[in-house]
Each structure stands twice: as C-alpha cells, then as structure tokens.
Specification:
4 domains, globular, two-stranded antiparallel sheet, 32 helices, alpha+beta
Length: 879
C-alpha cells in the first residue's frame, strides 16, 4: 500500500524531503539483488526512462518527483496489481512483456461500459489471470462476443503478447518485438522497402516456428489494432462538399457536377473503390480525418497524464498573475456560464484549434499548399501544454491550393464530433480513479496568422474594414499614389481629455472627437450574419464586386458558430503576435536601410503627404521635371547604414538562442534579408540598442516603447494591472509614430498592436496563443513527407507512427520517442565532473576546436559565486 508522501510537496532543501528521497532510492535500488538501473520518476521522465542511482538522484533534485506517483509500484513497493509489481522487478527488455500487458489491460478497461461489473458481464479483470494470460475459451468465446469491436482487437493483441517470438525465446514476445521494430523504423526514418527487407531477413534467420510477420502491412495492422488510425473522406475537386452522410454514395458533386473519381487510376495507391466492372477507382481529392474522441481518451489511460489533466484546477496557483490560459478572463468567463455542466468536472477538456498552410516539398518553385488542422489540449500544465507529443492532428486538408473560405467544408467532421463531445460526451476510463467517467470537450479559440484568421472567422482581413476588432468602424484612408489603404486614427484610443486629440497640425489637420470602437460580441456577430445572404461553397462561384458598398466585411458565416457555446466566448480567434511583430520589424528595417521594395518612405509616400497637405517639410521638390526628397529624421546616411549593418553582422548570440544573423546581412549593399520570425523577434525586443546612437530622440523614444511593449506582451507571467497600463500607453506610442512616419507605413499590421494588450487580458499569456509552436510543428510534419507524389498520405502515416510510439512510450520504459528523449544539453549537465559537483559537466574531448585558457582572478570570483548560489551540494555546506 502507498505510504505517507507528504514530503514530496515540501521544499527540496528541507530535511524531510532529503530523508524521503533517500528512502525512495534505497527501496528502488536495494529491493532486488544486483539491480543497477530503475525507472526515473521525476517530472521530466515520468517513469519512462531507466537510469542509474546517481542519475535518478540528480534528476529528482533538478526536476522534483512526479506528484501523482504516490504508490512506488515500479520500484518494488507492493500494489494491488501483481503484474505491475512483477514488472518493476524485471530488468532490460523482459520488462516489455509486463508493459504490454499493462497497456492492453488499460485499453480493454477503457472500452468497457461503466456498469459491466454490475450487469454480470465479464470484465477485463475477470477475463485475465493474475499472470496476464487469457483463460481458456475467452479469446475466441464469451469475451469476444460480449466485448465491443475495439475490445475484441485488444484481446487478440493480448493473445499475441503471450506468444513467444520463436520456440524457447524468453526475452521477447511477438507484440513487444513488433512494437520495438516499428519504433526503430519511425525513429530513424527507415523506408518501407528497407523494413520489408529486414523482416525478410529475420524470417530466414530465425528458427522454424517463429511468428514474425513477413510483410510491413501485417506489422502496421497489429500496430493499428491499438486504436490509432485515421479516416479517408472523399471531397469535391472544387471544395463544394464532402462525400459523406447524404452524399456518401454520389459519384458527382451536387453543386458543380464534377466527377468524384479520376478518369484512369487503376494503378494508384490512394483511396480505392471497386465499380461494377471490377476496376479500381481513385478519388480526385481526399480529406484525411483523425477522430478526436479516442485520442482524448488516451490522455486518461495512464496515471501520469490522467492526473495532469486536472492540473488546471487542482494544482494551479491562483494569485492573480496569468501564467496559463486557465488564469485568463476568457477561461473564467466560460466556467461561470457553464459552472453546473461542463465546468463541474475538471477532467473535461479545453482545446485550441490551430491551422496554417505550408509547402510540403521544401522548394519554393513549386506552388503547393497543404493545410493541417491541429488541436491543443489546455488542461495540461505549462511544461506539457505546448509539447508536440500531447497535440492532436485533427485533419489534413489536401492541396494544391489553399481552401480559403471553403475550409468550413473540411471542418464539418470535426464540428460534428465536437458537438457530440459537448452534448453527449464519451465514456472514458480514468487511470487515476480506476473508474469510467463521461468526458466532454470544448473548443476555446483558434490560433492562426492573419490570412487564416479571415478563413476561419469569415471576416475578411483585406480592404478598408480589415481590422476584425474595429469592424465597421475601422479608420481607413485610401492612398492615391500608394494605391492601398492605410490605417491610422489612433488618437481615438486616447483618453477623452488627451491634448493630442485637439492637435491638428501634427496629424491630419482635424481634431479627433470619436470614441474607440467596441469589439463585436458573439450575439452581435450572429445578428449581423442574419442580415446578409450566405454564399455557397466551391471555387466555381463568382465573387461579387460590391465591397465599396458594403457596411461590413463578412464573407461567410463561420461553421464554428454551429458549436452551441461559440457565441458566448470572449475570444474566438486570436491575433498572431508572431507575424505582427515580424512584419513591423521588416517595415522598420526596410525603411531605415532604404531597401528597394521594402522601404515605406518612397516617392509615392511623399506624394501622398503632399496630397493630404500634411508634414510640408517632407513634400517632394520638383526641379527640371525630377523629384528630390528631403531627408526625414529616420533617414540614415551611407555611413550610418554601414554602421548599422556592421553592428548586426557582428552580433553573437548564445548557442540555441537565435540563428546566425551574420548570414542575413550584406555589408556592401547595406541590406538585411532572409530574417526568420524568431530573428525579427530577437532584433526587435533584445537589441533595441541598434538605433539609439544613430537616430534622433523623437524617433528612438516611440521605437523603444514599441519594442518594450512586445517584450511585455511576450512575458511568461502577465499582470492584469500591467496589461491595463500597456493598453493606455500603446495608443500614445502609435500616435508618436504617426507624427513621424508617412501614412504608407501604417498598414494593417502596424494597427493591430493597439488591440494586443486587451486581448492578452482576456486570453492570458501569448505563448499559448501564437504561431511559434505551431510553425515548429509544421516543420516536423514536413519531415514526414517521404513520397512526394502523395504528401498528405506521407504526413498521415508518419504522424500515426509517431503517435503510436508516443502512446506506447507511456507504458514501455525503453522506447525512445520525443516524449522521453533528453534535452540537447541534458546529458552533459547530468555527467559528474572531476570535482564531484553537479554544476560541472564532463568535457567532451571528441569535439574538435576546443582550447584551454587561463582564467583571471575576476573570472574565478564569478565562478565561485555561481557555484555557491547554484550548486545543489552547497545546501549541505550551509547547513
């Protein structure tokens, strides 16, 4: 039975915690003779990696012990499950057999109805002996008849888990061998042909009577019996409809009358259908949909992840500081509305939806846009919430072109499933309580860049009403020479008594008496949707050119409003801070360095100033039919441009902090190109010094204020009072820039920062609502493309393989996945140095280019200070 674990929640410096850790290590490594390794139960490893005693001790000091691990059943302590206790005594690959039984036992229990024990039906515990074997007749008889389809497959897998790999093999069973082989294939990128060759070699090398599959297809079938699969849904080539429900048996689109099938595709390996002539027919367009419900259920199948799904309510610190979406006003507002229903059970899942298009080929001369839709569970704590192994692929929308407004057609299966999860829920097994419960799920918001914002929300982000927050009250100005709209008028966001509201000469020669626009509520949006006719989906429809006469910018009613709670959310779609910051940084760099095509201070911009009769000192001069431009305060001389480029060229960043900026700087041409989004993030926030000494104060002050604004928004901890202050200061910053920069500079990206602070007050920290982690995930998906003729199929198969291994890694201690791989420098930090202190790592002499240097006295003092303040062993010295 579990002992008293109060010490686990104490400070790691306390004597109780040190005594408790010693008790645990003694039990884990002295319980069986000759034991040298054991599972590490720290918050990072979660009983998934075998380590030696010193390594486990150091990990526990650094990361702390998993708070949900109160019964040390994997380390020799008695538990109710004998198979688990036996598995903790095992070592090496033999532990895989116990892990297989544990995994399958959990899967079977998750498919049982809640009342199976009271109705007299056989449960998994009754069907299985204590040693994990299936009783006679159960695999083919009563259990298979009574269990559902999923449970039937799990019982078949459990039978395979008992088969010896070959007669006399005591190390591996059939299932453990297949899982480990598939892990090697996926982790090291082994091709299908290579895996087939390896299987053929094994079948010839192993003794007679072995049960090794002779094809990769059989291996994949066994893996997919774990419940990890996806559906293929045919779509109209023009994105009009999905061939499902009432359209499932149609051969032609009911809207555009296009054929569902390719003309000649007998040798294709995509979606297959047999017609009356016996030939195979292949769909012209296929949506790959990954059901959400079983993936959410798997989060509750292990004790570790199941306990973390309640973290937002049980373990979160509520001190008024926002560190997680659960601290936000939007989350609390949702809880208040549905306090007696959805919010009454902390295990109900809150989700975020992210989507963006990318080119799966990695080459820019091929135009192709593939659109994955990703779901992020927000119940998890901050250190797991944004980890890729805990994300779910919902669907892959096929290319070649972006779906545009027709994305609603492809979202139909997901919306139907979300509605079922809201109204009905799903019967789910909770490994922590060892009981089933009714799990529900809700979508909190979407995460996307600004063009995708228009696709998902239905509000066009182009034209004169491009701002979704200002909506019909967007302050727009058409530039006669620049041939585009600009968005200024930020004085109306100032306080009513601000002196700049009455200043004419520095702005547009007019006073400002308007109030700031109020964002539309969900009910307002629904009312506006009812006022215009909904357009049909498909790429063949003709767009009406009546934008100038419209009082709104709606292009459609979003399918997300079919969700019953969507109109009650405070935030439905998030502005992407990452792309806003990058576009602003590019505009500043292009203008300061006067780069062709990127500068906002051009002849046309000066002519627009002359047209609006503002800032006469910047009007162009005409001499002999040629224009000459006066220097503005932000214009740099040739030497100043070289000074700026030389500074950027010489910047050195810490390892892993940013990319090499040197490759982006052209010293001769005084140009900066090829900056990634994170490069712009670093330049704009961490290096504001690059303009302080070469530009006048009236430009530097608002520039630094804008830089500090983004730095504050990106903070991991947000104070609502500080955000309220930012909401008051950002209008002044933008007004200062209005008095300096030409109107052409103020595109929609320059306007959107006015709304970011208020949105952060509603949604919480930006890290959970921006595209940085999503863009990294898209890079991962791009790596799955092995067959460039079918990129979506390659991504789907690669994702399923990775998902399977991630799920199995929670049961198998020796399977390497992204979930349990060490950090980049974790191995070096874990090695003990010659001095015997944890703060020192072992020198890797295999790396070339290292040198030995003698340290000065000042550097030695800094090292001593660092050791005393950071070394774990210093705690015992002070005591």
């Amino acid at each position: 039975m579990a002992r008293d674990r109060i010490w686990m929640d104490m400070n790691r410096d306390s004597a109780e915690w040190q005594s408790g850790i010693k008790e645990f290590l003694d039990l884990a490594f002295d319980g069986s003779p000759g034991r040298s390794t054991a599972l590490c139960p720290c918050r990072r490893c979660l009983n998934a990696i075998y380590k030696e005693r010193d390594e486990v001790h150091l990990d526990l000091l650094m990361n702390g012990m998993d708070p949900s691990y109160t019964c040390w059943k994997y380390h020799g302590e008695d538990s109710d499950d004998e198979s688990t206790a036996e598995g903790s005594e095992g070592e090496g690959v033999r532990g895989d057999d116990f892990a297989v039984r544990d995994l399958l036992n959990t899967l079977i229990r998750s498919t049982e109805p809640e009342n199976s024990k009271t109705t007299g039906e056989g449960t998994s515990e009754e069907m299985l002996h204590d040693d994990g074997n299936i009783p006679e007749g159960s695999a083919e008889g009563r259990s298979n008849e009574e269990a559902g389809g999923c449970a039937k497959a799990f019982f078949a897998l459990l039978k395979d888990a008992e088969k010896e790999l070959y007669p006399g093999c005591k190390e591996l069973t059939k299932l453990s061998f297949i899982v480990r082989l598939y892990q090697i294939k996926c982790l090291f990128g082994l091709s299908n042909r290579a895996c087939e060759a390896v299987l053929q070699l094994f079948t010839e090398a192993f003794p007679k009577g072995h049960c090794i599959p002779n094809s990769l297809e059989k291996v994949q079938k066994i893996i997919r019996d774990l419940g990890l699969d996806y559906q293929k849904i045919h779509a109209c080539i023009n994105d009009c409809v999905l061939f499902r429900k009432e359209y499932a048996d149609m051969d032609y689109c009911p809207t555009c009358k296009e054929c569902r099938w390719k003309a000649a595709a007998a040798d294709e390996l995509d979606v297959e259908r047999t017609n009356h002539k016996g030939k195979k027919q292949v769909a012209r367009k296929v949506l790959r949909y990954f059901p959400l419900t079983p993936r959410l259920q798997r989060l509750f199948m292990t004790e570790a992840t199941s306990s973390y799904m309640r973290w937002h309510k049980d373990d979160r610190v509520d001190d008024g500081i926002m560190r997680h979406p659960a601290d936000s006003l939007a989350w609390k507002h949702f809880d208040n509305i549905y306090s007696k229903g959805f919010s009454s059970d902390a295990r109900n899942v809150r989700l975020g939806l992210a989507s963006d298009g990318f080119n799966p080929y990695g080459i820019m001369n091929v135009s192709y846009s593939c659109w994955p839709v990703i779901l992020i569970p927000y119940n998890l704590p901050p250190w797991l919430c944004l980890k890729q192994p805990y994300w779910f692929m919902s669907m892959i929308i096929p290319g070649k072109k972006s779906p545009g407004n027709n994305i609603d057609v492809y979202l139909q299966p997901l919306i139907d499933e979300l509605k079922d999860l809201w109204y009905v829920g799903a019967d789910t097994y909770d490994a922590t309580t060892k009981k089933n419960f009714q799990m529900h799920a809700a979508l909190m918001w979407t995460i996307n860049d600004f063009p995708a914002y228009a696709m998902l929300s239905g509000w066009s982000t182009k034209g004169k009403l491009a701002c979704p927050y200002c909506h019909m009250h967007t302050d727009h100005l058409w530039l006669k020479y620049g041939r585009k709209y600009c968005y200024m008028g930020h004085r109306r966001f100032l306080s009513r008594d601000h002196k700049w509201r009455r200043n004419k000469s520095c702005f547009n020669n007019e006073t400002e008496n308007r109030d700031a626009p109020v964002p539309l509520s969900g009910n307002d949006v629904v009312q506006q949707h009812a006022s215009f006719e909904q357009e049909t989906f498909g790429k063949t429809r003709k767009r009406k050119r009546d934008d100038d006469n419209k009082w709104h910018n709606w292009r459609k009613k979003s399918i997300l409003f079919d969700l019953p709670y969507w109109k009650n959310l405070l935030i439905r779609h998030n502005l992407d801070v990452m792309h806003i910051e990058k576009n602003i940084c590019d505009s500043f760099l292009g203008t300061l360095l006067d780069m062709d095509g990127k500068s906002k201070d051009t002849l046309k911009a000066r002519l627009d100033l002359q047209h609006f009769k503002i800032r006469k000192d910047l009007h162009p001069n005409v001499s002999n039919g040629k224009y000459t431009l006066n220097l503005a305060c932000y214009n740099l001389t040739k030497d100043e441009k070289k000074m700026l480029c030389k500074f950027l060229h010489g910047v050195r960043m810490p390892d892993g902090y940013a990319s090499n900026l040197k490759r982006c700087v052209d010293l001769e041409g005084c140009k900066v190109s090829g900056l990634k989004t994170h490069d712009c993030h670093v330049l704009f926030q961490k290096l504001p010094i690059w303009v302080r000494n070469i530009l006048p104060k009236k430009f530097v002050v608002p520039f630094l204020e804008l830089s500090l604004f983004f730095a504050a928004i990106y903070s991991k901890e947000l104070n609502p009072e500080e955000l309220a202050k930012l909401s008051r200061t950002i209008p002044e910053t933008l007004c200062r820039l209005e008095m300096i920069l030409p109107p052409q500079f103020f595109d929609i990206m320059m306007h959107l920062p006015i709304h970011l602070a208020k949105e952060a007050r509603l949604g919480g920290p930006v890290a959970y609502r921006c595209m940085y982690p999503v863009e990294r995930y898209l890079r991962t998906l791009k790596g799955y493309v092995r067959n460039k003729a079918h990129p979506e199929g390659s991504i789907a198969e690669g994702y399923i393989a990775e998902e399977c291994l991630t799920f199995c890694s929670r049961f198998f201690g020796n399977i390497d996945t992204k979930l349990n791989q060490p950090e980049r420098h974790e191995a070096a930090a874990r090695d003990e140095g010659p001095a015997g202190l944890s703060v020192f790592g072992t020198i890797d002499h295999s790396k070339k280019g290292f040198t030995f240097e003698t340290l000065s006295k000042a550097e030695m003092k800094q090292i001593r200070h660092y050791i005393i303040t950071n070394c774990e062993e210093s705690n015992s010295w002070t005591e």
